[in-house]
Structures are given as structure tokens and as C-alpha cells.
Amino acid sequence: MTRKDTAIEAFEKGLDCDKAVFSAFEKDVIISPKEDKYIHSCEFPGLPHTKCGAVSGSGCVIFHYKENVGHEDTAEEMWQHFKDEFIRRHGSLKCKELLGYDLSVRRDAIEVVENDVFMKVCSKYIEDAVEILEEILKLS
Question: How many domains does the chain have?
Fold first, then answer.
């Protein structure tokens, strides 16, 4: 199974976008018990909750990969490369802009659920996040 398959399967089983992306890379990073708590909340430092979950999950992957496995680039360089490529592909890092709905507005949140927008739209962002991460981390 590919990392994309792993991420999509996790997403379809009910994991949030951020955790679905991270799940695709769990075997590639060394995670200590102390870090495990951080990962399950999967909030990348300095990343407001308005960001796409696939983006914030990617930040978690980059941070943990760099800290635990190493890489010739700095985490900041890797993170900037990720953001630049995601924006090139999708035009934004913000969930509201990518979904076309403001989840802080009750009516929009209900509409997203009723119309199954997450499954229809977010899987592409998850797949692309995994693909970009594989390129950045030089994983196949």
C-alpha cells in the first residue's frame, strides 16, 4: 500500500486530515512517548487552525522527520518548500478558501457535512500533501 493509500484509508475511517497525512509517514519517523501526545493533537507550531488540515499534518511530518531522522535541508526550508508547492497546486493554505465554506459559520459547517464536501474535496488535498512530502523528504 502506498502512503497516499494509507492516508486516504485513514481519512475514510474517520481520522482528521492532519492525522491522515501523518499516518502515512508514521513508519518513517521515530516517535518517542513524549512526542506521541503532540502528534495526536497534530498542531504545527505557529499554524493557526484556519489552515487546511492536510497542510498542518504535513508540518507535523516535516518537524518530526527533521528532528528524528535528519535531512540536509532545515525544517524551515522544507516547510517553506511544502507551502510554496501546495499553494502552486491549490492557490491557498486556508481551509475556508480550499473548501469554499467557512466552517466557523454554523450554516456552512452543516452544508459541508450534508453535502459530503470533506470526502469529495479534501482527499485530493491529502493526496497532494503526501506526494509533496515524499518529494521533499526524498522518499519513494
Answer: 1
